[in-house]
Amino acid sequence: MSNPESAYSAYSAYSAYSAYSAYSAYSAYSAYSAYGRESPVDALALMTNRDGIVGARLENLTPPLKALADDPNTLKRLSPDVQTALYVSELAPTVDVSANPAGPSPEVTVWRRNGLNVKNGNTNFVEMMNMTAPSMDQLVDQMRFLSGYSQIRGDRAAEILGQLSLPIPFFATIGYMDPSRTPRTLELLNAITTFSFTVIQRTKFALAVKRPIEFSPQVQPMIPTPTHASLPSGHATEAFLIARVLWKLLRESGAQQYEDNAYWGDMLMRQAARVAINRTVAGVHFPVDSVAGAALGLTLAEHVHSVAKGGKWSSCVFDGSQYNSETDFEWFRLYGPEKDKMRKTFQSGGAKWGGSEQHEGSSGIPAPMLNWLWKQAVAEWCEVPAIKD
Amino acid sequence: MLDSDTATSGNAPGVLSQVADFRLTRFSHKNNADQWWSVLVEIEGSIDAFIANAIEQGQGTSAPNLQPIPVDQVTFVVPVAYDAADRAVDHRLQPVSIFARQSFLSLLNQQPLAGHSANQWNVQSLVLGGVVDPVVLDLDADWPDTTPHPPLSKGATVMAVIDDGIAIGHDLFRDGETSSRVRFAAFLESVPFRKDSKTTVGRTLNNEAIDALLEKCTRQGLLDEDTFYSRTGQIDFPKQIFSTVALRSSHGSHVMALAAGQMLDDAEDERPIICAALPSRLVEDTSGVDLLPSFYLGFQMLTKEARRFCEASGALAKVIFNLSYGNSGGPHDGTGLFARLFEHYFGAEAVVNGDPQRAWLMLPGGNANLAQLHGVLEPGVELAQFDLSVLPDDRTGNAVQIWMPFEGADPAEATVVVWSPDGKSHQVTTSGPDQSHCFVNEQDFEIARLSFSGPQGETKRGLVQLLINPTASHDRKEPLAPSGIWQIEVTRQADAQHAIELWVRRDETIPGLKPGGKQAYFDNPGYERFGKYGEPLRVDPPGSDCPVKRAGTLSGFACGQSPVVVAAYVAKTEDLAPYSASGPCNQPSSPAGSDREGPDLAAKGDESDVVRGVLSAGSRSGTLVRRSGTSVAAPRMARAAAVAIHDFDGSGREWAQAPTASTPGMEKLNPGAPKTPQQSGSGAYSYPVEARWIYGK
Lengths: 389, 697
Known about the structure:
- The structure holds two protein chains of two kinds.
- Chain A is α+β, with helices and mostly antiparallel strands.
- Helices cover about 40% and strands about 15% of the residues of chain A.
- Chain A has a domain at about 85-95 and about 135-380: Vanadium-containing Chloroperoxidase, domain 1 (Up-down Bundle), CATH 1.20.144.10.
- In chain A, the strands form two sheets. A six-stranded mixed sheet of chain A has the order 1-2-3-4-8-7. In chain A, strands 5-6 form a two-stranded antiparallel ribbon.
- The longest helix of chain A has 25 residues, at about 185-205.
- Among the domains of chain B are: about 20-130, no CATH class; about 165-320, no CATH class; about 375-520, Sandwich (Jelly Rolls), CATH 2.60.120.1290.
- Chain B contains 13 helices and 32 strands.
- In chain B, the strands form eight sheets. In chain B, strands 5, 8, 9, 12, 13, 14, 26, 27 and 28 form a nine-stranded mixed sheet that branches.
- The interface between A and B is medium-sized, with 25 and 20 residues.
């Protein structure tokens, strides 16, 4: 059976994931049909209607063809909630999390499943993301940023409130997304953020970094401080996960404007950084939380891509205890969109506090449902081919 | 613990500046001998002599041409912007912007020696600026670069802007993706460069440095402006360095773009830009802040820099200055220190090291028309009462200036009586020795001061000042003044020939920051705010005998002889904006005064009564924002002046009398609207600027 001893085991908690389908603010089919849903009015009409037309029981039924089992081609006929659950069922077992709270600084590791040995059912996990919490002294140092950034709350208020839920509408102004135009892309983003949510919460829980509000009575955040811990920043993780996955989709589509120009990727990263920094403006995060969140989000993006398509993934280290607490969050220190690569070394202010290394993906087929979804999503960014007679 | 001065009534302490003494003795500054301040001193003789004299009397300073001394022995420093050549010049009188520790400041503020016009430090007058965090000072800075630049092209004009919050990376100030038209930028409140610093305060960047930063921060053709402004030093949150460039809209960006912004690929005339950004800081000084020392320093820097530009002929290039700042205090007759700023550098009696340089200065007329900050005791009137409303929860002090007539004109004595809201009163008479009386609270701490200083300096007018403590404080121990109506009564003989003028000083809160101060104003019952249809009255109703006036609210800065002063009009109605301040100025005045009656001309300040302001650069490339006021009218005229100065041989003010003749594209508006020369000078003029950015050529 699987090796890791954490509670994040492979198939036990799916029922919980379906609750997170409501997590997406850009829910694709919520207003799909006013009629035909479960409601007393509809049911009564359907009942009386049947009485009127059903007639005597028919004999000699011809069955339909047997359904394709476990075939991704049938996914498109499933409702969005169900689709999400299925994608997450592929993603969730690809990671596990272990914590080491007792060291000099709390530490957490996100492990990546490195292939499933079909013969004996053994799985092998390797380290993918290792994070160490900064010290309380470092966080005290970072409080200066909170008071500085609070000066621009007036400027950012509308954005901060608009970004309380998943910032898809903001990304949709850069990558042209819409439920009719890019339904698979939106489903993909929904699935990966549902997946990442649990990883984020688990790592926050393992590192237990306190929020700015606990350090000073002067923070007075402009939005309620969430009850979960500060680092990594969930908003930063999600934003950079979305941004990098979108950038991969755009690039893989082969459309010339994305091929020729990396400014699309740069703009997506700027958007992610804006979402992250707005949280510091709001008073609920330290800049270092955004650093950790961006590192995690960028790593998960590559991981998701590797699961869906096979191919490279990166391991990443973020050592908060080495972070120069006088420095601000600057995304370009972690990643460059031109080659879609994370930096080998993360450094700022004379301190080295992490880095990444790229690895070949494990052999074996990529996850079938995600693979289907990914390909469909990429196609949404290509030009629609002309009809050939 | 601390206790404030238990000052006594009677004769004034022997000081040059009552305001400086009042501020330095306030609760928040007591016992701060090591605190650094910016201060403007008018000195007799040369700067070298001033420095030598100070050193002889036990003070310590540092300069590139002096032996270094330990930092804790440095009590003052003259910025390197006054280089060796500047320091050697022996002026009759010159204003110098310096930094000094509080221990030296109290000495610098001593009254003149008997029979002399200056004190033992060669100082004739002093204006206290603001508290300075030593983190922005560099006592080891080197002299600034003065090597000439390669000649400019024909028709080029240097645009010099002093403002707050200037986004130098905006695309309207670039002529290439990583090529800036800003040839020099000074940020007066930044952490100095660790090496090769050529400024005593903050940072200066030349064109190479700016271009290098643009390159470093540009990726995929996009400038990362958050990072850029942190690298220029304009924003440094951990060190509490803040610039309004961090906000979406910043005053300096907007103004500078109107004056000199050009689209990146738009080959208009060459307009190299030099600029200085004033400090914006998070430190709250409850005694108030005066920007004058910073202005002077910025101006000194830019005049030096401007002299590095020449035309193909070898003559110094022409330069247009724009300072979109106004105030309400000062004698309003051209003799005030700021009003004399330009004259000192470019006026008829300017002492120049080398060839004179042709320069015009644009100033806003001010927005205080309806602010109820001005009162007058007219000739022939024996008594006038002014109800100064001092607001509660006002965390900075307030000040009223009462200017007597020019001493040569009207020796008639007046009496000023002030009642505090809690019924205490003091009075001064405007003749005889200087006087100073203190209002005290129940614990006997000074909470306000009424003083009289006799005629002196260039202004030669007696000055009564009412200085009031804050009415609220976060510190329980700070003595507070009562809020409410402070009644000021001015009386004198009925046959007096000239007016006595009162102005409430503007609480100079730097925009974009935590406001602590509230503006006090004259709330006289007889002041009519609205007309019979409920509209705010833009001019004083005829026949009104209320001593609080809209006339005479022109910015105190803008009363000098040479500047081109710009009022604001509303484009849709072509009427003057209701806030646009007007003359007359305070006449008669000393010979050092000006002949000005009001603004020189008017330019657009708003599109309409409901679409306020005009569009110009926001803080980030590719953005435009709206800002209103005479501050945005002035730079539009600066842009026009940059063209006209080549064709027109006279002064800026002479040009402003009939500007359309030498300025293609400039049109005079229907003269039916704005009225008298005191309100709008020679009239209102349109000049296209932002339409080009929005609609193309």
